[in-house]
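From the shared-data thread, chain only:
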Amino acid sequence: MKKATSIILALILAFSALSVCSVSAAQGKPVSFDTYEALYVHAVSGSTDGEAWQAWQCERDEDFSAVNPDVNYFFLPTSADSKKVDIYNAYKTSVTVNGVEIPPGEVKTVDYELNKSYSVDVSGKTYTLKFMKSNAEAAIYVNNTNADGNGNGLMMYLNADKSRSAKATGAIVDSKGNIDNTDIKKIKGRGNTTWDKPKKAYNITYSDAVSIAGMKKGKKYSILANYQDDSLSRNRFLYDLSDAVGMPYASDSRYVDFYVDGFYWGSYQMTEKVEAGSSNLISDIDDTAYLNDDGTVNSDFPFVCEVDASAQDGEDYYVKTSSGNKVTIKAPELEEGDVGYEEVKEYVKQKFDAFYNSVKSRTSDPTEYADVESLAKLYLINELGKNWDSGVSSLFFVYKQDSSGKYKFYGSPVWDYDNSLGNAVGVERELSNIGVTDYEEYYGWWCKYKGRSTNSKSVTNIMNFIARNNIVYEKSVSVWFEEFVPVINDFASDSSIPETNSTTEMYRAYTYYDLLKDSAQMNYQSGWLLDTGSWISDHSSLYKANYDLSTNTYTVDTKATTYTQDFTGMYNYCVDWLTSRAAWLSNEMADDYTPSEYRLGDVNKDGSLSITDATEIQKYAVSVVYFTPSQVSLGDVNGDGIINVLDATEIQKKIVS
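Structure, as tokens:
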């Protein structure tokens, strides 16, 4: 706590120093928010937008003290021209940059080269200026230099207390330079342990639905810092994997560069917030569905909940279940005094208790209470990642009607995996207590041990039970080989292997790297650390593993791969750990796998061919729906390697024959 407080104080002092010489926005000034004496650069050359400006800045340490204050950087977003930029001079005297004189209060176009040093004289002081440029998918600008009404900037105000929120203006700038100036209705800090870190995450609500670099439009987003993840990608990988294997409510996200009040805050991940509502991630759950037309509480209704051991009275709307688990209610989101407040809590408790008991025994059948396939996929994401928080927090379930109208729990969306995929060392005392000695390694089972104690038979961790349930495990094996393995294999493929249309929800590893590497370089150059503490595992070397399904062969390299201690090395370690763990899991489950005998063309996997299958194939052919890898293999009815209307026609012929 003392460390967190010192960081906040240092941040306040740093921004207070800047605000001493602030200049209020005035008519004719190109920047729409208050500026201080500095040079500013715009995200898009020739633009008249006033929001997407950033000041030059030096590297800072994690207490926000200046490092090499005589060297300033422009951390340019992906939209910036690679040869020229528009620079605004907020100093009181003229400044010359690369031979171009910029009078005070004016904007000039300046040619530049990346990573080249330029000497800039300002009022008798000489600075070195360097330009760096990102290739991330978008840039997010948020501005409010008077967040508290007393002249204090947005970050100084928000970071002092997570309960604070504010309005703001801003810009969303995509890679092509398109600018969206939709106002920010609310920005607020988010996270539990991550909130105490110097690089923080936030929830952002826009006044109208917006799209971030091609994402479907929405109002509510979480902008994740990924501070403890030196690859900046663990959340992205597992969110996209969940999408690729057909999990409901997979959160879409983009790599972005984040700027606040003209200051570059680093490389972030802009993500659909876990939120119910027609314009949000869980779009088919209405926050008012628990009420009848007359205002009374329905006998049955959908809801969204999260297992969260850290839920707090006065902060969270939660219920303590019979098993002792704290379950927060995310939708309907009610406050004490609202109609149905207590009734909803009791309903959620009853339904969760029944679901919990349905998976508690290895031999019990949860089919009446949950969608088993989604449970299997949720388990596999946590097992693949060796997620430290498995069954403890950020474990979401959606309770809704299935296709037959029966209410069931669906395991999804997945959330919060920055400490997974070989990133965390775990708590030694807890690991010893549950009998796990290989947590940091890519081998070894995890979910069925998390939450147990060698000194007690008492286990309340629901993911532990899901992992041990025979029916869930049986489904997990088929889902692993038919849905997960094809996606992961394609993810690991190099550019010499042509991409297929079966894994478009998850890119290849080299594609993610190309989108992120320059943004990551800016992130770490600005002052954020690769090694953020003793909680992070050693990422220096790895004996990589491989599994060949065709020969049922598992191999481990005889020589360890070593990784450079920079972003590239840390990114490659993450990728190799993921694929090596996938190989280990495949080897462990291979003997339990019997290929599913779906009939060719049965893309909805209901056991029969129908006009529904033909319709789904037609939708897929025009990119209206997404097929998982196993659906793709079933959809190519005529075997020509392409799924199109000819395959739908073949199904129609089979139906009438």
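The chain has four domains: 2-132, 138-272, 303-476, 611-656.
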